[in-house]
């Protein structure tokens, strides 16, 4: 604050540097200044002042510069710019007359007459040129539709129709695959590796619907999950949490219907009905934790109740699982519920900052149920260990699960690359490496990055923040954009924590594509990249996310063909409209060249 009686300098448009009261007073001063013609943004002539170096006396009111020059600064003498007085006076009079109401009315009448004339004349012109522009218009429509179909579905519509419908009608027969023969185990494995895999996997780090997905939708107004993704989750819940003996228990019967409900409120209502029938219904607590809890703390509270009920039911099922196949199926269901609840409790502890407790729960779960490796609990463990910066433990987990016999994932490949990059990234310099060559450790790090990029080429753009992230879906496609989003969403912070790791990735990741020039046909360390990932990722990821496509598709032939046809026909239509006689001569010449015998008769009949 300045001293009393001393005004502080004002900002633009009279804004004061002081608080809200000062801002208000500054606005008032600015408003009075504008009304009085004192704004610093106005010229001296418009404020009625005498500009520096001018012989014109100040005016009591603001005027336009044109009028000031036209009347000699109001003195009746010759204006300061000789020869411009008459032109400036005429311009000023014209401007005033154009602003009059009668002038605006006259302009509106003239515009109406012009439109009326165009309405009478244009149809005649259109009728004359209709034959010329029809082909251009139709080819333009074909081009626009072909481009839209390619952008939406990634294939050419004309090519798809030709191959799928016209080819069988013409008589083309597709080469049928030969009958399967007896292969050895090695050949079977090789053929299985060469087949593109488009299986949907449950995201091991999927978020909570009520506490995370729903909160995102409340804030942004965007739906983070697609219907296809939620439908896959509904199928998973029915497979995990239901069995044939549910009809014997009323609460499980209600929950069996709840997992099939599409409306979230109906599912929550059914869960409360199941709890009224049986207060120890573990699956009801699971549903409430996933969908009704709006915070992780509430979700953890529900999961603890589910754990208490699930352990009791699991012990009962263990005692009688050998009595019948139905009891064995019930034991599998109760095992799935118990594993799911313990895993989600470990994830709650991880999100609430109790990371060591989370790691212990995951290790105990993996020891208790070693056969459930397909649930990929080790990926949860890897992320928690990276948060603890326990890199030796991370390496031990990788040594166990980064095996040739186990399915790979982006978490496995990129975590292995991160650990090898950590050993050299701090001292890595591209200039130095170019001069002296790469060391053994640097070569290992670069090869690990190339291996990871070959497995999933979409991840580096998210790690390097070249593409924006969205919330990961509940299901992912291995080697697809959905897996890349899920990995980068949780692991970007771990790459940033290691100094130089992202710089090393930035310098080396694009070198992978030189080793695999045709990734859809042949891979380097993995089987060829599947061609079905784009379509599946579009179903899994929300519509507001731009799906990453690999490899980048070239425009189909029919896109170029329709674009050329549209441009050529439009040019012909324009030339025919502008130079009809010349185009007739040109058409006759073309017909004579193409059909020298029949051209005269055709032209004569025309």
Automatic annotation (TrEMBL):
Organism listed in the record: Gallus gallus (Chicken)
Annotated segments matching region Disordered: 1-61
One GO cellular component term: membrane
Ranges that cross the membrane: 99-118, 130-148
Name of the protein in question: Suppressor of tumorigenicity 7 protein-like
Family: Belongs to the ST7 family.
Gene label: ST7L
Key word ATP-binding present: no
Membrane topology: Multi-pass membrane protein
Compartments in which it is found: Membrane
Pfam families associated with the record: ST7
CDD domains per UniProt: ST7
Keywords: Membrane, Transmembrane, Transmembrane helix
Start-end of Low complexity biased regions: 11-24
